[in-house]
Amino acid sequence: MTETLEYTLFYWPEIPGRGEFVRLCFEAAGVEYSEVNDVPELQKLLLNKDVPGIAAPHFAVPVLGVRSGHTADTHTKKAKSDAASDVQTSHQKHYISQTPAILSFLAPRLGLLGDADKLQGLERDVAAAQIHQLCATALDLNNEVHDSHHPISVSAYYEDQRDEAKKRAADLRANRIPKFLQVFQVALQGDGAGLDQKKDGGRRLWGSKTSIADLTVFQVIDGLQFAFPKYMQKLKDGGKYSHVFSLHQDVKDELKEYLESEKRLPYSNGVFRYYPELDEE
Amino acid sequence: MTETLEYTLFYWPEIPGRGEFVRLCFEAAGVEYSEVNDVPELQKLLLNKDVPGIAAPHFAVPVLGVRSGHTADTHTKKAKSDAASDVQTSHQKHYISQTPAILSFLAPRLGLLGDADKLQGLERDVAAAQIHQLCATALDLNNEVHDSHHPISVSAYYEDQRDEAKKRAADLRANRIPKFLQVFQVALQGDGAGLDQKKDGGRRLWGSKTSIADLTVFQVIDGLQFAFPKYMQKLKDGGKYSHVFSLHQDVKDELKEYLESEKRLPYSNGVFRYYPELDEE
Fold first, then answer.
1. What does the pLDDT look like over B49-59, one tens digit per residue?
2. Residues in domain GST N-terminal (chains A, B) (predicted)?
3. Among A90, A276, B152, B249, who pairs with A71 as Cys (CB 3.0-4.6 Å)?
4. Under an 8 A CB cutoff, do A123 and B168 touch?
């Protein structure tokens, strides 16, 4: 009755970007996935043309491809007892885009629901929604970081909106990042989700086990440290968000092998960019 | 075995804002809900203090309160046969924030999964993820509309960022809105989700039945017509996004009673604002 799925991540080459949030799920779970980073191939998918079995159209990558592993090579009809029997044809492939939708789809399949995995019924659904909520909050911060260097237009160069970017980045540092980090700090304090389970250290956002929310917060903090090194060091030294920085370190240790491998792409010209003039002076 | 839940929507008074996406779900489903719009009460919830049973902390409203309806008045322990038996104490109340997390939690409970409600197993999960994807895309557009009048800082006045807002709104009209509407147009063309079911008119984003994605797209188009009346009229007359405007009209008809009632708040000073200088000339 086990569902075996083949996963493909479609994302731009060379930058970690939003694809990295999906990549971290597979790496943390130790589940195999393949990648398509060929630009013409991605554009075909985004144009929603010539792709058999496409469902909802995609605004942007990352797109996750999902195919039932049992049927991939056999081309035979599924037995009724098979949990994947709802896959109608042997070659049917599903496509999902939008990072939060992909993460929420993957979480229960990859064991990334934190301690909520132990719950059932309404309690489990609520916990999954709260994990989704924390992911969405981290992804909102991710978007605000992107907008800090492109406050006027995504399609124009940074150099053409540098003055506005300086103002927006100042606001991001002064008002927005602290507000976001405070939410994660509270969630990790034991006033938040998971409650008792977290009081003995090794805290995660929903209990003591790593969830998609922890991976997402890790990646955003990691990217922020690249983009605003002076500012983030000051926050870390300040101690106000100690649990958030501990979580970042814990997840970093957990993903050590991947993070030190060649598969981990360096930050460059994606969401997280280092422009010294946007950092704290 | 039916789960009966009591729902409370926590949102700012006077503006439709992001609370409206949640409100529309209950109104479309004909399911009762109560509201808390008292500002000090909301601030208490956002500060994550003095609220018993709080779980994950909230970055912002809307927040959805969920309580098992069976136990609300009785204070008795649940029978094992009750589907809500996972609610541990009679007064336990759950809180969920982040619009996409709230909508995804509500969709299967309120019959708002479109034709995906007929599916099971992997196919249902994929369809739910695609509906989530379309919602997230519409909510991204909603956020970009907000940023068009606040490109530099949410906490500063519009009047202090009017010049930047003019540039950002011009980019929103020229590049962003058309790109978003194209995605919804394709989804409604029968190339998208739901496929055959939609070819005979009465199309919805996932099949022929209204889902959270249709409600969300409706609300964003509706708000855009308020914020950019000339521009949106031009797009409508152009005919390129005919299915999107038809969907808007269909959902408007479906929600007629609510939309014409006093419960429907007028647009004013929220996400959707009418600044003539940001509209098409």
1. 545 445 568 99
2. 5-114
3. A90
4. no
State the CB neighbour count (10 A cutoff) for residue B258. 15
3-state secondary structure of B204: strand
The DSSP 8-state label assigned to residue A77 in this structure reads P
Task: For the beta carbon of residue A92, count every other beta carbon within 10 angstroms.
Answer: 17
> Is A119 at the interface with chain B, CB within 8 A?
yes
DSSP 8-state symbol, B47:
T
Report the CATH architecture of A114-266.
Up-down Bundle (1.20)
Which fold would CATH assign to domain A5-109? Glutaredoxin (3.40.30)
Structure tokens at B116: 């995906």
Kindly determine whether residue A129 and residue B96, on different chains, have CB atoms separated by under 8 Å.
yes
CB contact under 8 A, B126 and A54: no
At B11, list the tokens: 């949102």
Higher pLDDT, A41 or A217: A217
Q: Model confidence over A85-106: pLDDT tens digits?
A: 333 444 468 899 999 999 999 9
**What architecture is domain B114-278?**
Up-down Bundle (1.20)
Give the Cα separation of B46 and B59 in Å (integer): 7
Neighbours of B90 (CB within 10 A): 16
Q: What is the pLDDT of residues B249-274, one digit of tens each?
A: 999 999 999 999 999 999 988 899 99
Cα distances from B53 to residues B65, B89, B104, B108, in angstroms, run: 11, 10, 22, 24
Output phi, psi for A236, to 5 deg. -65, -45
Tokens of B174: 């020229």
Contact B171 A153 (CB under 8 A): yes
Residue A120 in contact with partner chain B when CB distance is under 8 A: yes
Domain ranges of chain B: 5-109, 114-278
CA distance B82 to B73: 16
| B268, B213 Cβ separation under 8 angstroms | no
